[in-house]
Amino acid sequence: MIDASFLAWPFFEDRHREYAARLGPWAETALQGAVDHHDVDGTCRGLVRLLGLDGWLKAVVPEAYGGLFPAFDVRTLCLTREILAYQEGLADFAFAMQGLGTGPITLFGSEEQKRRYLPRVAGGEAIAAFALSEPEAGSDVAALSTTATPDGPDHVRLDGVKTWISNGGIADHYVVFARTGEAPGARGLSAFIVDADTAGLSVEARIEVIAPHPLATLRFSGCRIPLSRRIGGGGEGFKIAMATLDVFRSTVGAAALGFARRAMDDALRHSSTRRLFGAPLSDLQLTQAALADMATGIDSAALLVYRSAWTKDGGAARVTREAAMAKMYATETAQEIVDKAVQMMGGLGVTRGVKAEELYRDVRALRIYEGATEVQKIVIAREMLKMAVTSASRTNTTDNTPATSKA
Ligand code: COS
C-alpha cells in the first residue's frame, strides 16, 4: 500500500498499527496461489480454512469464544477487510461473511449458542451465512414473508425462500430471519440459527454475478427448528438484523477502501511508467487531476469509515447514521476511483487478468448489498430528522425568550 499514513490517525491505537503491520505482508504472500476464480466454492472454503488457521478469523468473534477482543473491535474488522480487499476480493468476502453470518449470535446469542457456533467459525472449521433477503424483500426488511410458525411446545416450522444469500450452498449454518407474527411489520420478526443439514432446507439455485462468489437462493420447506436456536426474544429479529448491519456496514466501506487504494496504487505505478507524447502519462495535467481526485476521495472515505468504527468501539449504543454515511460514501467513491484507474490504463484496464478489470467488477456489488446507497440515504435522512426533532424540543423547553419579542 503506497499511502498507509492513515494508520497514524488518532482513530487508531498501537495494537491496530501492529495488527496492520502483520496482516499486510501476510496477505501479500499467503494469498498467492490460494485463489482460483474458476472454482469460487473451493477457493472460499480454502480461504476460510487458511484465515482460520493463521488466526485472522479471531477478529470476528469475542475472546471468550476463541477471538481476539472481549467484543467486536470494529476498527480491527475494518482494517482486516481493507487489507484483504486490497489483495483479493474473495479473501475479503470469506472473512466478512464469517463475521456477518455470526454477528447476530455474537451480539444477541445465548451462552449455549455462542459456545456451539463461534469457536468453529473463528477456527475456520465452519462457514457462516446471513439469510435476510427474499425475492420480494431486500431493502424493505419489514416486508419479509418467510414464516416461522409454532410446531409443538419447543419448535418452529420454517417456510419460505431466501435469495442473494452469500455462502449459500457452502455454509454450515445460516442465521435466518422469519416472520413470527408477534406484531405487524418490523416488530413481528425473529432470528434463528439453521444448520445446513436441516431436513427441508435446499439450495434452489446458484446465482452467477459479475464478481463471482458463492451465492444462492435457498428454500425452507417445513424445517423444524428448536426454539433454543432462536436468537434473542420473539419479535426481536428486525432489531437484531439492524444492529448487526450497524457493525458490518462500516466494514463494507472498508472493503471498498481496499479496492480503491489498490486501484490508486496501480494507477500511480502505471501513469509513472507508461510513456506517451514523449513523457510519462503522469506528466499530463488531466492525469494529475484524476490522481488528485482519487487520493482525496480515498482520504474522505477513510475518515468516514474509521470515524464510524471508532465511535462504535468507543461504546456508542448505535452508529446507524455514521455507518450508513461510511458505507454509502466509501462504496460510491470507490466505484469512481476504480473507474478512473481503468480509464487511465486504457485497453489494459478492461483486459481480463489485469487487476483493474477485476476491481471494476469487484467493487460494483458493494453499492448494493447490506443496504443499497438509496437505503443508506433514507437511514441518514431519518437520523438527521430525528435529531432535528430532539433539538427543537430541547429549544422549546429552554426557550427563555420574553413573550413580547416572540410575536
Ligand atoms: N438498531 C437497532 N434498532 C433499530 C435500528 C438499528 N440500526 N434501526 C431501526 N431500529 C428499530 C427502530 O428503532 C424501530 O423500533 P421501534 O419499533 O421500537 O420504534 C424498529 O427497529 C423499526 O424501525 P423502522 O421504523 O426504521 O423500520 P423500517 O421498516 O422503516 O426500516 C429501513 C426501513 C430501510 C431502514 C430498513 O428496512 C433497512 O435498513 N433496510 C435495508 C436492509 C438491508 O441492508 N438489506 C440488505 C440485505 S442484508 S445483505
Describe the fold and architecture:
The strands form three sheets. This protein has a four-stranded mixed beta sheet. It has a four-stranded antiparallel beta sheet with strand order 2-3-7-6, with no helix packed on it. The protein has a two-stranded antiparallel sheet with strand order 9-10. The chain is of the alpha+beta class. The protein contains eleven helices and ten strands. The mean pLDDT is 96. The structure holds coenzyme a persulfide (COS). The site of coenzyme a persulfide has 23 residues, from helix 7 and helix 11.
Give the helix/strand layout.
Layout lengths: L13 H17 L9 H14 L20 H14 L1 H12 L2 H6 L2 H12 L5 E4 L15 E4 L4 E12 L6 E7 L9 E7 L5 E6 L8 E12 L3 E2 L5 H37 L1 E2 L2 E2 L4 H29 L6 H26 L9 H8 L10 H25 L10
Parallel strand pairs: 1-4
Antiparallel strand pairs: 2-3, 3-7, 4-5, 5-8, 6-7, 9-10
Helix pairs in contact: 1-3, 2-4, 3-4, 3-7, 4-7, 7-8, 7-9, 7-10, 8-9, 9-10, 9-11
Proportion in helices: 40-55%
β-strand number: 10
* Beta-strand share of residues: 5-15%
- N to C succession of SSEs: HHHHHHEEEEEEEEHEEHHHH
Query: Strand order within the widest sheet?
Result: 1-4-5-8
Question: Can you tag this structure with a few keywords?
Answer:
49% helix, binds coenzyme a persulfide, 4-stranded mixed beta sheet, alpha+beta, 407 residues
In short:
By secondary structure, the protein is an alpha+beta fold. It is 49% helix and 14% strand.
